Amino acid sequence: MEPQNMEVATLVQKIAGLHAAIAKLPSLSPSPEVDALFTALVTACVPPSPVDVTKLGPEAQRMREELIRICSDAEGRLEAHYSDVLNAFDNPLDHLDRFPYFSNYINLSKLEYELLVRHIPGLAPSRVAFVGSGPLPFSSLVLAARHLPNTLFDNYDRCAAANGRARKLVRADKDLCERMSFHTADVADLTDELGEYDVVFLAALVGMAAEDKAKVVAHLGKHMADGAALVVRSAHGARGFLYPIVDPEDIRRGGFDVMAVFHPDDEVINSVIIARKVVDTGANGFQNGHALALAAMPVMTPPCKMEANTLQKSEDIAKKELAF
Q: Which residue(s) pair with 261 in the sheet?
């Protein structure tokens, strides 16, 4: 067996063992045992790897799909737990660093914002939507507080309890209370509302199967305004055991020009895809403009990063910069 194939086989075997251990847990709610197993899983998946999870055999694919569903469940429970912890304080936003992955959200939101302004010139959104915001909407909080201070945020989640928790987090901040709204809805049921947004952010776990994600993107493409931006979270390499991988071609088929794909190699786990709703200028203009945009799409992986040394900042510096 070639060294690269052996490395992939060893990694898949290790992840399969962790999957088996996690599947035996009586509960996925936060506990020392749960935390230790998921820490081991993330530690195994984050380093650069030659594995292409889309080319794994049927058994490994089934394991990966189940593992992503388990991770989604565990992530929801973790966020609900820490949302309750934070909401016990008079001003929850003063204690966000209690969440163990706080710095990851700081860096991911910064990355998404910098990619947006780089690839969508002149972007100055007055209203954005975050689909799949959950009980602990860190991304919206960071974007609203640090990067888009004059923008209105509409957060969508299918779970009313998650929205209830999220709404309490901003209760002590007058500015964010006025600019952030929380709506209980499935993205499939949103139509005219989607046309009101300059940017739509799509959370990684909205549409976990490839075909479901493609349907969500197609729905957004049908109802978003021409020229509006779409930010999609994906995964790359072994990180595809943690989150769904989004094919940029599915985004293109959904009616978008894919402007950039970025694969981090640091603590930011998610890849980021920046797209823009195609402006229909007639049959000829649509096809020509679409083809040109696709041909020019940059796929960026380190060291081809942006001027992004700031993504390497420590959590302490990130906390200071947040400044709610």
A: 273, 299
